[in-house]
Amino acid sequence: MASTMQTLEVSLGDRSYPIHIGQHLLSQAELILPHLKRKQVAIVSNTTVAPLYMAQLAEPLRMAGVKVIEIILPDGEAYKNTETLNLIYDALLQNRCERSTTLIALGGGVIGDMTGYAAATYLRGVPFIQIPTTLLSQVDSSVGGKTGINHPLGKNMIGAFYQPQLVLADTETLKTLPARELSAGVAEVIKYGLIRDVKFFDWLESNIVKLMALDTAVTSEAIYRSCQNKADVVAADEHETGERATLNLGHTFGHAVENAMGYGVWLHGEAVAAGTIMAADLSKRLGWLNDAEVARISKIFKAANLPIEAPKLGVDKYIDLMGLDKKVVDGKIRLVLQQGIGKSVVTSDYPAEALRQTLSL
Amino acid sequence: MASTMQTLEVSLGDRSYPIHIGQHLLSQAELILPHLKRKQVAIVSNTTVAPLYMAQLAEPLRMAGVKVIEIILPDGEAYKNTETLNLIYDALLQNRCERSTTLIALGGGVIGDMTGYAAATYLRGVPFIQIPTTLLSQVDSSVGGKTGINHPLGKNMIGAFYQPQLVLADTETLKTLPARELSAGVAEVIKYGLIRDVKFFDWLESNIVKLMALDTAVTSEAIYRSCQNKADVVAADEHETGERATLNLGHTFGHAVENAMGYGVWLHGEAVAAGTIMAADLSKRLGWLNDAEVARISKIFKAANLPIEAPKLGVDKYIDLMGLDKKVVDGKIRLVLQQGIGKSVVTSDYPAEALRQTLSL
Ligand SMILES: NC(=O)c1ccc[n+]([C@@H]2O[C@H](COP(=O)([O-])OP(=O)(O)OC[C@H]3O[C@@H](n4cnc5c(N)ncnc54)[C@H](O)[C@@H]3O)[C@@H](O)[C@H]2O)c1
Ligand SMILES: NC(=O)c1ccc[n+]([C@@H]2O[C@H](COP(=O)([O-])OP(=O)(O)OC[C@H]3O[C@@H](n4cnc5c(N)ncnc54)[C@H](O)[C@@H]3O)[C@@H](O)[C@H]2O)c1
Ligand SMILES: [Zn+2]
Ligand SMILES: [Zn+2]
């Protein structure tokens, strides 16, 4: 299986790590072996992903003499909790895994976040490799080091910053991804173009059809440039005060939608798409985007089969739901808005009336 | 309340922090205030310690305008688990605590370890202050950054390295400590002298009666020199491969005792004392300690009301129990032994027969 591979190095001093992006990376044990402390790994996956990809990953490792433990969790955001986390610890302890055992996450963002958190906390930290199998996890959770689980009172409330040794983004795995999940990932890809990379946005406009068809070269390039943008933002702002907040473009509106509809009814990426359209509308009211720019934004989301209209919840309901969001500073809702395509700002400096008009659409 | 205070600075680059040691520190809000990001704290304590000291700590803070949340957990090592940890998260979330809320641990090592771990993981990390109220926690867990909880399959299996902003060791709190708990803490104090600080050991010999009587100046000095020794060892060996292992003097034998008798029947420090005597006996068999030195070691433990004889479990039982210990490398039991008072080595290079003789005593 010949394959081209792109590699992005995430620079974090002695915690730097490579992200390899390409086809059929999953079964290339030689990519993984140099990163193991000892020939022992525990692969964490779920009941959906394991039947598709566990053997492809585990067998070549076993052939290379690696002892592989498989930990298969139930599938779903609802299981991203302390009980499921304990299943990982239980399996590690039952198998007497020591500090030199590497945890490998094989799955989407839910598996990645939970496995990363287990790695951060098992024996106060063991090595960790990410093999994200959704587009969203390939372009988003591969970079930034956030790991964690949900609490009944809030999403991602418990966690740790913990960096992987290595990320393998195998574009082939996306072929089995449900179409809606693929689109949801594309929403975050488009986001990077919108907030800080107009050239990437232009390129995406030309290549969106190929991306939706999972053309290999285009998919790989889209992942590479997304991770690079995220890495740049995160590096510039380790403490999440300034530019990092722009990664939340569309998210304050989007969380209100997810919340109102019940988590999981709208996928996160779908809500972000509709939310980004709302942010664009408000930006236009402030004179920061023109009609043509707004039309381009709508068009690319449509081409990705993403919703461009948020549900009509009523202005007050929106305000209420958005107020619950953690981006509120001193009672004012801080929003990520656009000042042209490829340029975003975080601001609470807009007329309340303009926001209400956007929310009443 | 006039009081003298000693301060030890633990040097860890941008994670450095002070340990203040002295009388009546608990109620000096001005020691704490400069370390708060915002005037909001959550004090975690237990049903034994809170009635004794919560008000002394909380009231002056409230007078200074700090919002104080009190989280009172059940008392005991048996509660150092994921369920109790969740009680902390629940309370923090119910009170809408944000990233600027400081967690304060008020209690012994169990409260300190759990609170530190909650601080490491709540919202991926919030600030943390230690107020250890047992001698053991003042001289041991104040330094080193280890936090965590137990798992049914092993002690301290889940955790994180996480440094506090500040440690307050208030010697007054030791006055309510049960006598056995005080002695157990003294075992670790003596340990520092034995492994690396002969002058401290000499000083302890002269001052052990005053220490047991909780003379203020002597107690403060003993805590200061203990923390300094631990800080030196930890700084020299962040990754626990070399010198840090000497902190386990007496612990491999001691864990076997704790384990065999059922956890909690022998206090940890009591088992460490008996274990240290066994290590001394083996060291003598190797010609590394003479009779007079062994006698000095026994004498100081006796003066601290600590056991100097381990239970007679039989050699094979000991070997078996010690084999379970994580300090086994390639089937040989690595032990911390003495080469004189104030000089220890970690070695698996001793005749098996000598170990069997020590274990048969
Ligand atoms: N750590 C971070 O920085 C970060 C960033 C963004 C999102 N997240 C988290 O990621 C999670 C969302 O991630 P997600 O969108 O990947 O969701 P997900 O992990 O739930 O995956 C979506 C669905 O697709 C399935 N799936 C995964 N790979 C597949 C494949 N190749 N073929 C077929 N089905 C496949 C999954 O089993 C699941 O049913 C959330 O919990 C979110 O909080 C974390
Ligand atoms: N983090 C580290 O580096 C480190 C080091 C050593 C031990 N530990 C951990 O510490 C724990 C043992 O700590 P410990 O010996 O302090 O036990 P502990 O916390 O259980 O305290 C012993 C008993 O004394 C009570 N108590 C505490 N302060 C008191 C006071 N001032 N007056 C009266 N009663 C008081 C406690 O409520 C408890 O009942 C273990 O879980 C161990 O794993 C951690
Ligand atoms: Zn998102
Ligand atoms: Zn100890």
UniProtKB/TrEMBL annotation, chains A, B:
<protein>
    <recommendedName>
        <fullName>3-dehydroquinate synthase</fullName>
        <ecNumber>4.2.3.4</ecNumber>
    </recommendedName>
</protein>
<feature type="binding site">
    <location>
        <begin position="75"/>
        <end position="80"/>
    </location>
    <ligand>
        <name>NAD(+)</name>
    </ligand>
</feature>
<dbReference type="InterPro" id="IPR030960">
    <property type="entry name" value="DHQS/DOIS_N"/>
</dbReference>
<feature type="binding site">
    <location>
        <position position="251"/>
    </location>
    <ligand>
        <name>Zn(2+)</name>
    </ligand>
</feature>
<dbReference type="InterPro" id="IPR050071">
    <property type="entry name" value="Dehydroquinate_synthase"/>
</dbReference>
<keyword id="KW-0028">Amino-acid biosynthesis</keyword>
<keyword id="KW-0963">Cytoplasm</keyword>
<dbReference type="GO" id="GO:0005737">
    <property type="term" value="C:cytoplasm"/>
</dbReference>
<dbReference type="GO" id="GO:0000166">
    <property type="term" value="F:nucleotide binding"/>
</dbReference>
<feature type="binding site">
    <location>
        <begin position="173"/>
        <end position="176"/>
    </location>
    <ligand>
        <name>NAD(+)</name>
    </ligand>
</feature>
<dbReference type="InterPro" id="IPR056179">
    <property type="entry name" value="DHQS_C"/>
</dbReference>
<comment type="similarity">
    <text>Belongs to the sugar phosphate cyclases superfamily. Dehydroquinate synthase family.</text>
</comment>
<keyword id="KW-0170">Cobalt</keyword>
<dbReference type="Pfam" id="PF24621">
    <property type="entry name" value="DHQS_C"/>
</dbReference>
<dbReference type="GO" id="GO:0009423">
    <property type="term" value="P:chorismate biosynthetic process"/>
</dbReference>
<feature type="binding site">
    <location>
        <position position="146"/>
    </location>
    <ligand>
        <name>NAD(+)</name>
    </ligand>
</feature>
<comment type="pathway">
    <text>Metabolic intermediate biosynthesis; chorismate biosynthesis; chorismate from D-erythrose 4-phosphate and phosphoenolpyruvate: step 2/7.</text>
</comment>
<feature type="binding site">
    <location>
        <begin position="109"/>
        <end position="113"/>
    </location>
    <ligand>
        <name>NAD(+)</name>
    </ligand>
</feature>
<keyword id="KW-0547">Nucleotide-binding</keyword>
<keyword id="KW-0862">Zinc</keyword>
<keyword id="KW-0520">NAD</keyword>
<dbReference type="InterPro" id="IPR030963">
    <property type="entry name" value="DHQ_synth_fam"/>
</dbReference>
<feature type="domain" description="3-dehydroquinate synthase N-terminal">
    <location>
        <begin position="71"/>
        <end position="183"/>
    </location>
</feature>
<dbReference type="GO" id="GO:0008652">
    <property type="term" value="P:amino acid biosynthetic process"/>
</dbReference>
<feature type="binding site">
    <location>
        <begin position="133"/>
        <end position="134"/>
    </location>
    <ligand>
        <name>NAD(+)</name>
    </ligand>
</feature>
<feature type="binding site">
    <location>
        <position position="155"/>
    </location>
    <ligand>
        <name>NAD(+)</name>
    </ligand>
</feature>
<keyword id="KW-0057">Aromatic amino acid biosynthesis</keyword>
<keyword id="KW-0456">Lyase</keyword>
<feature type="binding site">
    <location>
        <position position="268"/>
    </location>
    <ligand>
        <name>Zn(2+)</name>
    </ligand>
</feature>
<comment type="function">
    <text>Catalyzes the conversion of 3-deoxy-D-arabino-heptulosonate 7-phosphate (DAHP) to dehydroquinate (DHQ).</text>
</comment>
<dbReference type="Pfam" id="PF01761">
    <property type="entry name" value="DHQ_synthase"/>
</dbReference>
<feature type="binding site">
    <location>
        <position position="188"/>
    </location>
    <ligand>
        <name>Zn(2+)</name>
    </ligand>
</feature>
<feature type="domain" description="3-dehydroquinate synthase C-terminal">
    <location>
        <begin position="185"/>
        <end position="328"/>
    </location>
</feature>
<dbReference type="GO" id="GO:0009073">
    <property type="term" value="P:aromatic amino acid family biosynthetic process"/>
</dbReference>
<dbReference type="GO" id="GO:0046872">
    <property type="term" value="F:metal ion binding"/>
</dbReference>
<dbReference type="GO" id="GO:0003856">
    <property type="term" value="F:3-dehydroquinate synthase activity"/>
</dbReference>
<dbReference type="InterPro" id="IPR016037">
    <property type="entry name" value="DHQ_synth_AroB"/>
</dbReference>
<keyword id="KW-0479">Metal-binding</keyword>
